[in-house]
Amino acid sequence: MESEKNENLDNEPNSVKLKYVKLGYHYLVSNAMYIFLVPLTIASTHLSVLSVEHFIHLFNYLKFNLLSVTLCTALTVFLATFHFMRRAKQVYLLNFVCYKPEPGLMFSQEAFMETSKRNGSFSEESLAFQKKILEKSGYGPKTYVSKSLIDVPMNQTFEEARKEAEMVMFGAIDKLLAKTRVNVKDIGILVVNCSLFNPTPSLSAMVVNRYKLRENILSYSLGGMGCSAGLISIDLAKRLLQVQPNSYALVVSMEIMTLNWYPGNNRSMLLSNCLFRLGAAAILLSNRSSDRRHSKYQLIHTLRTHKGADDKCYNCVIQKEDMDKRLGISLSKDLLTVAGEALKTNITTLGPLVLPLSEQILFFVNLVGRKIFKMKIKRYVPDFKLAFEHFCIHAGGRAVLDELEKNLGLSKWHMEPSRMTLYRFGNTSSSSLWYELAYFEAKGRIKKGDRVWQIAFGSGFKCNSAVWHALQTINPKYEKNNPWIDEIDKFPVYVPKVAAIVS
What we know:
The protein is 46% helix and 15% strand. It has helices spanning 2-30, 32-45, 52-63, 66-86, 109-119, 124-135, 147-150, 158-180, 203-211, 229-241, 267-275, 311-315, 335-354, 357-371, 398-407, 412-425, 432-442, and strands spanning 91-98, 187-193, 218-222, 248-255, 279-286, 297-306, 317-321, 327-331, 390-393, 451-458, 462-470. Mean pLDDT is 88; it is low at 1-16. One of its GO terms (cellular component) is membrane.
């Protein structure tokens, strides 16, 4: 033990030296432009010795070449105009609201197990399996479920599912409209995503009917796209805003639980019962330049990765019937491996767009060494903490968060919003990223100029990213309808690896 301690002490100076070498390297590369400007500055001082005769000679030269000067000027003006006309419109996030259900819909782990036993369709082995999953889930005692699952007996009807959809959608939108004070007639784009509940008329039509939105609205309902559909909706809204002048886009992300309780004994399908919880988010985007000063964030990048061409990826999260013809969502054991591969593809594409030049050089040198010179060196994982101040990682489950924390080299502080969202609200599917961003805001961590990276995974299999730039410092005192604001002082809390459920 003593020798191990001495070894660590011996290595400490080396680690400190390495730290400062790396910091010096990043500083040098990041400020390379300024360093190269020094010779130019010195050269420019020589221009100060030019006499008036030199400038008169230059003027006479240009006067006798008027045609060339005119053509060059016209070409410059044309190219500049063409560039500004072709440049994509900027997209701003005015505000967002996460739905917080009534206290009567809270569902503790003990209540979950009581409901499962009362259901009568689960074997003793299935009940024991669900209890084990819940104990290791990282969920707290105050997550929410739909009223239909609390009722005795369960009220799993289509009408009840529609009521649940109206409750979460309209509950979030009402508060968002009150926050932003935007006239509903100015909303030109509507995108609603929900994977497993797709009624007729559609969910987007329900919103149009409730708020009497205009007749020429571009309205979309996205179904079957899993937990990453929230960022797909943001990407779709962004692309529409870039071609629709002076518009607002309303995005609603949610999942409906009522019709998706699995009553069978297939273990891969029982996982979805244990993991998913009630939640929704409404987001208002704008492309109006006048809204920039009122907006919280600017959307910088959206990036989508789809691995559906690979059969293993396609089948790792799939809705199907079990041997007894009971419908459920099957989660494969390969899920973490598939998610890792999808993330690797996504960040390889995203990296050059967001990482500082210093990290890109290190990554490139490492890649050349491994691929071209066949060097047996460890793959270099770029330090994304140099590109982002905040990370919103989909709270899909404890194992997913553990894996990303390790692979991206993130600290406990970076992971706190994702873990606390998992503890307080559970996996709310596509809306979970917004509960995490709301946590940042409630904690007062968002400062003007900060960069936020949202990462989500979903069936298909997909990994999607969105990058936001904070346009203002968020003061929690002025944040209304934030789901955390009334209890944020209680967080973070310690979450044990295993939380025993009292039977």
